[in-house]
Fold this sequence. Notes:
The protein is an alpha/beta fold. The protein has helices at 2-13, 28-42, 62-71, 85-95, 153-167, 184-197, 210-220, 229-235, 245-252, 266-275, 341-344, 384-392, 426-436, 462-470, and strands spanning 18-20, 25-27, 51-55, 75-78, 99-102, 109-110, 116-119, 133-139, 147-152, 174-177, 200-203, 224-226, 256-259, 279-285, 289-293, 305-306, 311-316, 322-327, 352-353, 356-361, 364-370, 375-377, 380-382, 397-406, 412-420, 445-449. α2 crosses α3.
Amino acid sequence: MRLYEALVEALRGRAEGRIATTRSEITYRDVLTESAAKATLLDQVAPRGARILLAMPNHLGYASSLLAVLSRGDLPILADPSLTSAEIDKLVTDCGIDAVIAADDAVGVPFDERTRVRATGVDGARPELAPDTELGRLTSGSTRSPACIEFSAEAVLNAATTWADASELTPADTSLCFAGLYNGLAFNTTLVPSLLRGATVVLATGMPTAGSIVRQVTSARPTILVAFPAAYDRLVEYPLDKMSAETREALARIRLRLSSAAPLSEAAAARMTALSGPVSDYYGIAETGPITFNREPGVGGTHGRLLRGVAVSSRPRADGTAVLHVRTASMGTKYLNYPGEFERLVAADGSYITSDTGSVDDGYLSLRGRAHPMFEIGGRKFSVDSVRDPILAFAGVADCHVVQLTTPSGRACIAAAFETVGAVDISELRAHLQAALSAYKVPEVLVGVDELPRSTTGKVKSAPVRELLLRTFQQPVNGGQ
């Protein structure tokens, strides 16, 4: 219970620290009180030492829920609240999860003002945890369904303290966070570091429209802004002539603007720099934690300097492709529900073998791309197969090709062309995918064809399929898409 003890010690030492929204707040002292009450409630739902899935939205009770689980010696598994019931059910079975805390669970009993908790009734054999595992976080980046990465307390604390030191986080800082706390961007740079250092966390609420972002920045007056590129894109679209002096002052006092997943366009980056200051890309990997800190965005075209204790090198993998090998003090241990898969991605010297290509020069990392492209929608990374497999499972689908497209408005989306054997009802296929996948993974464009274009070797030709799918944006969408 080292993670719990470290967090409690920090919260007691900075009891007046705050977690807030623009409407209300609680102190770290309140967090400790709430966590004790929630632990008592959990005693009525699951035995101590349980595995508990936290599929919770950002809210004032997030930290106290996490602490309540840790206080009982349970394993908290942090998850995207947009997981479908099918995805949760699979995780329950594959990970041996005893209870679920979620916002949209009608079966559970009230846990706080936003969430409910229920026992799963899971029974039978379940995968063993590593001896020092104290927390789980999900990724679907390298597996076909969400994989639970096991982390030791040491790994979680190393990630947080390394980042806090690099970013010079102090109790005087206020982080306005638009990212989900389950996500590496928020978890590793905001939630745990702030709890340890006594800094204030303001959780953004509502849809991140330009007006909403401006209002919340003005109200919170943050020193740190944490958001994905889409939020910065919207912020710079706000009309300058309608921006109040108070808002301009609030934007000017931000000392650090963090983003992740994909770089801003040059135009958006330039407008944001003029409006408030440069945006720093957070480069980290779910399995390894934070890797670089881009203190001076844009300097030399790099993704920042390697953080303390991080080693990165470019080496050929088994197929000869040179990819980055990353070793940190915050690495995960293994995938709970994919035995042997994590270990396969770790080199003999303990480095995690990524799919990223790039180089390190004088301590600065430059990324070039991916050896095997991944999808990225709204800051969420996931594999092609995680979308492709449910499509192939639908009756009448013989094969499919899934791509990520950019719409005419500049928004990223998923699209798929599928080869049919017989009649396929697109509406039924879409309903099937909506039940099987998180909303951000469901293809916005679905096109059925008698035969996918193929090369002489039988491989699907990506370019013609992409052109076919892009044409759907140039004509009225009918019931077949």
